[in-house]
Write a structure and sequence with these properties.
The protein is mainly α and 125 residues long. Helix 4 crosses helix 5. It starts with a helix and ends in a 10-residue tail after the last helix.
Length: 125
């Protein structure tokens, strides 16, 4: 069913995608949780809701879904809705996503290490 949800999303049939992702998320599917977070963050097939996006990303991150970790890290880096910026949490989440081979997370970890954001500055890393 996840393939059908992704297919609907890619065809911009956001109503169907939202319905399928919601059913899968209720079953604890980490990819569906992450996709729901993205849809709520961007108001695709639903009313934009940053708190729901944060909730779905958090649930996906608890299941170690790589892009849930990355998206949650971005939220902690920049703040979103009621979430307060936390560079240390952002660094930790980016590191977890980078370890799961998410290229933009690898880049963010490198920048954070270079600048000492949420971590001790370390050029050699």
């Amino acid at each position: 069913m996840i393939e059908k949800a992704h297919e609907a999303y890619n065809k911009q049939d956001f109503t169907t995608a939202l319905e399928l992702y919601t059913k899968l998320a209720e079953l604890g599917n980490a990819d569906a949780l992450t996709s729901l977070g993205f849809m709520y963050q961007n108001g695709q097939g639903c009313q934009k809701d940053e708190d729901k996006a944060f909730e779905f990303y958090t649930k996906g991150a608890e299941l170690k879904q790589p892009y849930a970790l990355f998206n949650l890290a971005i939220i902690y880096m920049n703040g979103l809705g009621t979430v307060i910026t936390d560079q240390f949490k952002a660094h930790d989440l980016h590191m977890q996503a980078a370890e799961r081979e998410v290229p933009p997370a690898m880049y963010e970890v490198a920048l954070m290490l270079e600048r000492g954001l949420g971590c001790i500055q370390n050029y050699s890393e």
